[in-house]
Amino acid sequence: MSLNSFKRALWLYLINTGSCNGCDIEIVAALTPRYDVERFGIVLVGSPRHADVLLVTGPVSQQMAPRLKRVYEQIPDPKVVLQVGSCGMEGGVFYESYNLVGPVDQIIPVDVYVPGCPPRPEAVIEGVVKAWVKLEKAAEQRIT
Amino acid sequence: MATLEFGLDFWDPIVCVIAFLVLIAVAYLLRSRGQKKYKKGTVQTQIFLSGEEPPDVEQRHIKAHNIYWGFFQALKGYYDPTIKAHTGIINDYIIWFAAIAAITAVILFIVG
Question: What's the number of domains chain B is made of?
Fold first, then answer.
């Protein structure tokens, strides 16, 4: 699929909502020379206000839920949420923990799920591509 | 307006004004290409503070008093009672004045 409407680089903001850091390491691995997604313009940014995609890792602890909501709301539209890792879907190794309010899709709407504990960088990249396609469709709808 | 010559260098107000206008135009061009889709009046236009609600503008400023933290900390024994004595009530100051004046008068009377 060619990108005709969403013509700029894809900027992502990563938020860890209580993850063990495994998924975060795999995401960072996608930026290393082996995969080097930055050559496609896929960049991690330091503020959600600059981002198009929100990458969420972790099962969402009580403390992180309001922060996650706020970060989601700070991203300008159109935006896509990419949830990375099993614990954000059903708790994973943190299942039934006393301080969880997740999964992620009970706090904010999720567009793309990347399962795995942790998922490999290839899976994360495929999720990002799916998120990009969603943004392209959203941009197309805005233009037409 | 004349151009000032400094050997190999020069200064001309017209050149300065033109350079300033060019920089303003470049800054405006960069700014106009920025994100315009922020919804006004929502959290999207607020500063990002790692997901925290930003405090009021007054609370965000670092007070000049902080610069003297070490100074006040070192002289805590002196400042704590002194600051307590400065109540801001004029009656207290008059009492202090009267008391110190009386003590001084007694000392002067004894010493002669």
Answer: 2
Q: Is residue A5 part of a domain?
A: no
Domain count, chain A: 1
Residue A7 pLDDT greater than 80, yes or no: no
For B89, the domain range is 64-112
Model confidence at B55: pLDDT above 80? yes
Cβ of residue A48 closer than 8 Å to a chain B Cβ:
yes
* Mutation for testing the B interface, residue in A14, A49, A54 having most B CBs under 10 Å: A49
Strand pairing partners for A80? A53
Residue B68 lies in a domain: yes
Pairing of strands A53-57, A80-84: parallel
State how far the Cα of A84 lies from the Cα of A23, in Å rounded to an integer.
Answer: 7
Closest residue on chain B to A65 (Cα): B51
Distance from C-alpha of A28 to C-alpha of A124, rounded to nearest angstrom: 10
Q: Is residue B52 part of a domain?
A: no
Give the model's pLDDT for residue A14: 96
pTM: 0.72
A63: domain CATH number is: 3.40.50.12280
Model confidence pLDDT, tens digit, residues A47-85: 999 999 999 999 999 999 999 999 999 999 889 999 999
In this structure, is residue B50 part of a structural domain? no
Digit-coded pLDDT (tens) for A20-42: 999 999 999 999 999 999 998 89
Longest dimension (CA), chain B: 85
Widest CA span in chain A: 47
In a domain, A6, yes or no: no
CA–centroid distance for B96 within its chain: 33
Instruction: List, as ranges, residues 28-47 from A with C-beta within 8 Å of B.
Output: 47
